[in-house]
């Protein structure tokens, strides 16, 4: 069973709380401005892109949400120090062009920060997010997973 690691730094770090508030409901709940949590020269990395700069990150996030009808994060575990955090999450999302049903994706955010976040890397399974939901490719991936599981 997973539990949240509430280090003293995490409990009292308003930047991590603002990060969680920003991502808690990305489609509707912009209670925190992106410039409040990210540095101007932030580096952002995920399985799709690597980009630098607040404007590029903002444009990427806006574009990512264009066809999404739901996108919210559930935060599971947090390990944080004075300048680094690892946050395990579940993203609940619905992208009608990918799947008729809402989906859940597990991942981890790795953050470096001082006054604001200077580095943000999201690690997740791109296959679970997209490829497994495509008609032909999804069946192939399912077949491969079943074969591997049987040994």
From TrEMBL:
<dbReference type="Pfam" id="PF12680">
    <property type="entry name" value="SnoaL_2"/>
</dbReference>
<dbReference type="InterPro" id="IPR032710">
    <property type="entry name" value="NTF2-like_dom_sf"/>
</dbReference>
<feature type="domain" description="SnoaL-like">
    <location>
        <begin position="20"/>
        <end position="118"/>
    </location>
</feature>
<protein>
    <recommendedName>
        <fullName>SnoaL-like domain-containing protein</fullName>
    </recommendedName>
</protein>
<dbReference type="InterPro" id="IPR037401">
    <property type="entry name" value="SnoaL-like"/>
</dbReference>
């Amino acid at each position: 069973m997973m539990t949240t690691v509430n280090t003293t730094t995490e409990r009292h770090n308003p930047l991590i709380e603002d990060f969680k508030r920003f991502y808690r409901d990305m489609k509707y709940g912009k209670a925190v401005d992106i410039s409040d949590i990210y540095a101007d020269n932030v580096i952002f990395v995920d399985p799709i892109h690597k980009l630098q700069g607040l404007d590029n990150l903002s444009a990427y996030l806006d574009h990512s949400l264009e066809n999404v009808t739901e996108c919210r994060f559930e935060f599971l575990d947090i390990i944080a120090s004075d300048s680094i955090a690892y946050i395990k999450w579940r993203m609940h999302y619905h992208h009608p062009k990918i799947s008729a049903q809402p989906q859940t994706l597990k991942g981890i955010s790795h953050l470096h920060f001082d006054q604001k976040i200077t580095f943000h890397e999201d690690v997740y399974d791109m296959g679970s997010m997209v490829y497994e939901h495509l008609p032909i490719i999804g069946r192939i991936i399912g077949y491969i997973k079943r074969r591997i599981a049987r040994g």
